[in-house]
Design goal:
CATH topology: UDP-N-acetylmuramoyl-L-alanine:D-glutamate ligase
Number of strands: 14
Number of helices: 12
Order of helices and strands: EEHEHEHEHEEEEHEHHEHHEEEHHH
Distance between the termini: 13 Å
CATH architecture: 3-Layer(aba) Sandwich
CATH class: Alpha Beta
CATH superfamily: Ribokinase
Shape: globular
Helix content: 40-55%
Largest sheet: 9 strands, mixed
Radius of gyration: 18 Å
Length: 327
């Protein structure tokens, strides 16, 4: 089994259910990721102080890496946390789920993401990066990539060009397959040229949803996956209830979504990526990789947050074993 290394923002998610009008009053675009300062993050938390909330270790790449470990894969995660209660919660959660943490200390408070979930299951992020934003290019060394086969990063890191370029360059030089999740349509729009250059020069696997792929290519899903596949080895475009497209070379596979009772779409794309990479690490073809990702994504939308129960993980693992044994 190949080993997967992730790099991303070490964030703890605070999940809140809100009404549509409340999201409108906040002035946050539905489905977007918004970087906020400490005062704004605190104001959001105070506004909904009486509302029930769930606290879970999150972050896009972290969610994908946790998925791989929860399926029985070998995975590690690089990030940065503060010396505080949220940072300690984050470390404990990673270890509990079988991830090897490579977490640098910061003098800043640990990052926290307020996830606002509307009744249709759509999620809007207000992210205070804190210590996560303190991760620097000088923290990355060539030795970190030794013993790993796949390197997965989140597009949210593109605000730090030096960090992401150094990391993918080292991974590429060390012979790892490099994977990136484009993260958010507004992230793609704001870093269009940089992301295209990154993919063409260093990236082997690209994950995007339909909004991100549209921002990246200007094309609809079936055409955009073909366009992205011209720049990398494997392209994946997720289209929610319409499933996903996976393409490598001239081979394109469309996978139907599974029937799910969606109550919170937080982490669906991350768990898809984690399931897909778990399959890749075990030598599955692209269709089987996509099926693992599809099932993981379909199950996580049925719960609030990104953590699945042991029963659900056992269901997914049994499904994976049913066709893995035939390889």
């Amino acid at each position: 089994m190949k080993k997967v290394l992730g790099l991303g923002n070490a964030l703890t998610d605070m999940l809140l259910n809100v009404e549509d009008y409340e999201l409108l009053e906040l002035g946050l675009p539905r489905g977007s990721m918004n970087l906020v300062d400490y005062d704004t993050a605190l104001a959001l938390q105070n506004r909904f102080a009486s509302r029930h909330r769930s606290l879970v270790a999150g972050g896009s790449a972290s969610n994908a890496i946790n998925t791989i470990a929860s399926l029985g894969g070998k995975a590690a995660f690089i990030g940065k946390i503060g010396n505080d209660e949220i940072g300690r919660f984050y470390v404990d959660d990673m270890c509990q789920h079988g991830v090897s943490p490579i977490l640098f200390p910061s003098k800043l408070l640990s990052g926290c993401c307020t996830v606002l979930i509307t009744p249709d299951g759509e999620r809007t992020f207000a992210t205070y990066l804190g210590a996560a934003s303190d991760l620097r290019a000088e923290d990355i060394s060539m030795e970190m990539f030794s013993g790993y086969d796949i390197f997965h990063i989140e597009g949210y890191l593109v605000q730090n060009h030096a960090l992401i370029e150094k990391a993918v360059m080292y991974a590429h030089q060390a012979g790892l397959k490099v994977s990136i999740d484009l993260a958010s349509y507004n992230t793609v729009n704001e870093n269009y040229e940089f992301l295209h250059g990154l993919v063409r020069n260093y990236v082997d696997i690209v994950f995007a949803n339909e909004d991100e792929s549209l921002a990246y290519t200007g094309l609809q899903p079936a055409d955009s996956v073909a366009q992205i596949a011209k720049e990398c080895e494997i392209a994946i475009v997720k289209v929610g209830k319409a499933g996903s497209y996976v393409q490598t070379g001239d081979q394109c596979v469309h996978l139907d979504a599974i029937t799910s009772n969606c109550i919170d779409s937080t982490g669906a794309g991350d768990l898809y990526a984690g399931g897909f990479l778990y399959g890749l690490a075990n030598g599955f073809d692209i269709e089987r990789c996509g099926r693992v990702g599809t099932l993981a994504a379909g199950r996580v939308v049925e719960t609030v947050g990104t953590k699945l129960s042991e029963t659900t993980w056992n269901e997914i693992k049994a499904y994976v074993h049913s066709f893995a044994s035939r390889l």
